[in-house]
Amino acid sequence: MKALAAFLGAIALTLPLSVFGHIASNGFLVADVQDTRLQGSIELAGRDVEVAIGVDANHDGKITWGEVRASAPALRQYVAGHLQFATQGGICPLELGNVQVNDRVDGSYIWLPWSARCATSVRKLRVHYTLMQDVDPSHRGLLTLTDGAIAQTAVLGGASSSRAFDVTQASALRTFGEYLRAGVWHILSGIDHLLFLVSLLLPAVLLRDRGSWEPVQSARPAFLSILKVVTSFTLAHSITLALAAFGIIRLPTRLTESIIAASIIVAALNNLFPVTQRRGRIAFAFGLLHGFGFASVLADMGLPEGARLLSLLAFNLGIECGQLSLVLLIMPVAYALRRAALYERLVLPFGSAGVAALAGIWLIQRAFGY
Amino acid sequence: MTRDLARTRADVALPLAQFYIARSRATGDLRYLGYAEGELLPWVGSPSPVQPTALVLQATILQSRHAFDPALVELDRALAIAPNNAQGWLTRATILRVLGRYPEALLSCGRLAPEAESSVVQLCEQSLRALTGHLQEAYAEVESIPPAALPPPIQAWRDSELAEMAERLGEDTAAERWFREGLRVAPEDVYLRAAYADLMLLHGRAAETLQLLSGYDSFEPLLLRIVIAQRLLGDTGMATAAGRATATAQARLESAFALEEQRGESVHRREQARFLLDVEHRPEASLAAALENWRVQREPDDVLILLRAAREAGRPDAAKGARDFLAQNQLQDSRLEPYIEGARR
Q: Which of A198, B205, B290, B315 has the fewest CB atoms within 10 Å distance of its CB?
């Protein structure tokens, strides 16, 4: 009879049941990476918290707001002992905030905000999650990890209670690529910057000698001239781009755009009626204004929190790449054609005049808002 | 206190785990399975001397989560240590049956013999014969087991097998009688209640279904049947209280399915397929869920939802695997017949 009784308990378990029932226990972990800082929240079901630390002080089977508040210190201690973030620089100490109650379709949850400061910029993040595991090994932490615009999700607990995530590294590369492309695209589609540069570069294969243009004898002076212009322009616009991107200097867009148009006219007219052969200085002076022009594009895109410097660098590098490819495309041709009469008589004067006229229209449009 | 005791003493931990599993059954709450698993942890790993009973209980938990292959692994470990563990063999037979591996399941039933009552062995074997071309005879055999001699849980098991056999034979009136009888003996049997609700829904008896399931909405699979019945009655829209209740229930099911998917589990995949088909009317999505479910389990209900979804989605060929399975096992089920003939035409 005893054997049968033991067996009966068993029978009750093994009828050909499909499983029925409530969903298993889940915790909702949200984490956002901001450079060296982590911020987020952990949300546990009220009944799970009850099992883990005992919230229902008067044992009436109900969890009141007063009981939740009273047990907040114990909950913070419990979470601190079972949730850990670490980077390559070590553990990021956790700071836990004030509890709130959140109702989900499957019951009340206790929501706890947290933040953590890491020793270094977060690149590899290890999340160690053992909440509830000792009482309910089927509990899972559903993690949503965001880093700028990039979100990763993961299931924590059980065999994978500790998991590592490539955070800034993976996303930094992507951000870098994104801003690099934006830089290239902007310079190649921003014809005003290109025309300014071309106007300054067209005479580089010629020398001004007693009121007339002469082709350079060798590549060396042409190369040096191009180098001077391009370096000056790059240096100047990089300075102001950085200043504007970090909000140190702000200029009205209309002013900068108008001056950019004016700069093209100046560069082009200087080819028709040469005033100075120090085109590097023109490149530098107006390059400062072009930098503000680039910055306005960047302002539209926004710099990702935590990767501002990196994105700025990528954007600027993109601009230089675009600029350099233009120089490599045009200047060898200009150098080859420098002795041809049409270069000095046609390309330089008419090209410059056309550019000046076009820039004039832009100037009127930009300055007067047509 | 109890928790600390259970860490060190198997005679505390194992009954406690068993209690939690029973609680999970009675309340439909999967958390109790987790608590049971927590109690078993020290007794199923390698450091401590492994307890065969603990392994069998662990297998039961895994089975409940539809982790059938890992469950079989645990059972094989248990049965290697204790070859006469009837509980282990019965659980094994049950899992193999759910997987549609009938010949292997039948062998496991045979291994019950030394320790189990002959009625249990008979139920185990005949329920399998009923799925493999001997439905009519198996029905008669099980009916001939005198119920009075059986303890209530086995009585309820007998009734549920008889009800399902009758339903597969197309004898719905008899099936209904067995369902009622089973629920009288074991009102807490959720599986039986769900199967009875399905029979009612098949005949469009929505109001009666709601009556049968009233108070059982904490069980997701029963909640699904409630929602289907409510929609049959036209209780939708936010204008009426009944309509709002339907919407809330629907949201609860959606959330449960979504969270389960997020966890990478498939406990309620069959219900999800049915939800997508009968509630949301998204046959393609339902077919995808039904096919995924088919990879995990192969009960007649799994065949049914797959055939239905495939037809509704206009892709009867997608259920070819299920039809081959039926033919191969000579599985007879009147509910499936319309879909089989439909496909042949």
A: B315
